[in-house]
């Protein structure tokens, strides 16, 4: 009986641990984007698509705040709007002309806990882009949650 | 936790021999019944959140000093506010049905009736609560786009069900007064809501996100049947 009492005491200590009111979940919900470009491989005598690193300046459309300022990037994260179903961003590659990408998405409110509040997850429905530098957009993963992953591929035109 | 419980059970069973209850004591399989008040429940509630007020009582039957069907009834209210301004309030009764299994047996080493009614047990429960809740002023924000909004949810008669595994002891004190001590692991099973998280705190269960452990310390009275009392007098 004595050892049972000791075990109960031990378990009681475990039982008494309570929440400290802190949110320990990852609060960041962003759309992951990666850059690709197609080049002509003379050896293969074919066009080859591969990941690329570019000097990028990125802002939200109609937003003065710069997300990335002349940073060398192969992938980056973009925050989608939580109260509107459309998010637009202006992407400038180097000194070349800028492109605007538009993301149409559905927002879903997910109450996590009293400490963490509500996270807004997104489902990407459709994308649109101008084609000054960008050739196309490909949705890799439609569901944007608080997990770091890639959702969108941007393919730049073939280098001349 | 489970591994620990299994270890305890294994050791205890290994130390006990088969129960040998004399035939003349088998007139009735019901040996007694108990009513207990949980002293720890209000303290455990406050430990989780200062806004939790909860209390519970239990009644169990003693069959053959081995099986103890039990019903636990309680009531809880919570009124809590988070640092981000969100508030959650709920009031609800709750109930649990289950059974405890005495893992110490009911005889001593000489196979005589063990008149000391202390025992250790493992048990299972199914609990349920029907909750009226209010979750208000939950913010959603996006700093980059300068967006913010406050959301609220209100629910009436939303229900939640959960399972529990219990390990504890029951000790005879004096003149039929008994006390019990148990720890329990709870697992949220189902809810009437699509998003169970909205029921942030479920009376009788606790925080709805994930497993929870709680401690119970009960005081009460055990009434033994006439046949059992006569055995105690011998």
Q: Name the beta content range of chain B.
A: over 45%
Series of secondary-structure elements of chain A, N-terminal to C-terminal:
HEEEEEEEEEEE
Total helices of chain B: the number is 3
Shape call of chain B: elongated
What is the tally of helical segments of chain A? 1
Counting DSSP E segments of at least 2 residues, the number of strands of chain A comes to 11
The overall pLDDT of chain B, averaged over residues, is 82
Question: How many beta-strand segments of chain B?
Answer: 10
User: Main beta sheet of chain B: strand number and arrangement?
Assistant: 8 strands, antiparallel, barrel
| Strand-residue proportion of chain A | over 45%
Describe the overall structure.
Chain A is mostly beta strands. Chain A is 9% helix and 53% strand. In chain A, strands 4-3-6-7-8-10 form a six-stranded antiparallel β-sheet, with no helix packed on it. In chain A, strands 1, 2, 5, 9 and 11 form a five-stranded mixed β-sheet that branches. In chain A, strand 3 (54-60) and strand 4 form a beta hairpin. The relative contact order of chain A is 0.22. Chain B is elongated. Chain B has 234 residues and is mainly β. Chain B has one domain: Porin (Beta Barrel). Chain B has helices at residues 2-15, 40-48, 226-233; strands spanning 30-38, 52-63, 67-81, 87-102, 119-142, 147-174, 177-191, 201-202, 206-207, 212-224. The chains are: A mainly beta (160), B mainly beta (234).
A few lines on this structure:
The complex is a heterodimer of chains A (160) and B (234). Chain A is built from one helix and eleven strands; from the N terminus they run αβββββββββββ. By secondary structure, chain A is mostly beta strands.
């Amino acid at each position: 009986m004595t050892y049972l009492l000791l075990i109960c005491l031990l378990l009681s200590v475990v039982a008494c641990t309570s929440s400290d009111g802190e949110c320990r979940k990852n609060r960041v919900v962003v759309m992951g984007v990666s850059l690709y470009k197609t080049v002509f491989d003379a050896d293969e005598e074919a066009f080859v698509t591969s990941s690329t690193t570019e000097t990028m300046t990125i802002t939200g459309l109609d937003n003065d705040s710069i997300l990335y300022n002349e940073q060398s990037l192969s992938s980056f994260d973009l925050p989608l709007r939580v109260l509107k179903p459309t998010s637009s961003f202006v992407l400038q590659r180097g000194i070349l002309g800028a492109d605007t990408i538009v993301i149409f998405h559905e927002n879903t409110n997910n109450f996590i806990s009293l400490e963490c509040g509500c996270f807004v997850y997104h489902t990407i429905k459709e994308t649109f882009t101008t084609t000054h530098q960008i050739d196309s957009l490909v949705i890799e993963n439609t569901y944007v949650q608080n997990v770091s992953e890639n959702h969108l591929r941007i393919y730049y035109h073939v280098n001349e | 936790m489970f591994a620990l419980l299994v270890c305890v059970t294994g050791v205890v069973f290994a130390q006990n021999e088969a129960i040998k209850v004399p035939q003349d004591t088998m007139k009735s399989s019901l040996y007694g019944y108990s009513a207990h008040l949980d002293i720890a429940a209000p303290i455990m509630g406050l430990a989780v959140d200062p806004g939790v007020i909860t209390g519970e009582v239990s009644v169990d039957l003693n069959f053959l000093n081995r099986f103890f069907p039990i019903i636990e009834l309680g009531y809880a209210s919570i009124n809590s506010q988070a640092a981000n301004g969100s508030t959650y309030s709920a009031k609800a009764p709750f109930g649990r049905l289950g059974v405890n299994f005495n893992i110490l047996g009911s005889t001593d080493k000489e196979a005589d009736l063990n008149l000391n009614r202390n025992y250790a047990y493992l048990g299972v429960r199914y609990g349920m609560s029907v909750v009226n809740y209010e979750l208000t002023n939950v913010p959603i924000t996006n700093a980059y786009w300068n967006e913010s909004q406050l959301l609220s949810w209100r629910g009436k008669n939303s229900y939640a069900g959960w399972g529990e595994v219990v390990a504890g002891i029951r000790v005879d004190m004096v003149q039929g007064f008994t006390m019990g001590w148990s720890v329990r692991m709870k697992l949220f099973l189902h809810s009437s809501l699509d998003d169970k998280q909205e029921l942030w705190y479920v009376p009788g269960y606790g925080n709805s996100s994930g497993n929870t452990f709680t401690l119970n310390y009960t005081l009460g009275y055990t009434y033994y049947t006439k046949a059992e009392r006569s055995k105690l007098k011998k």
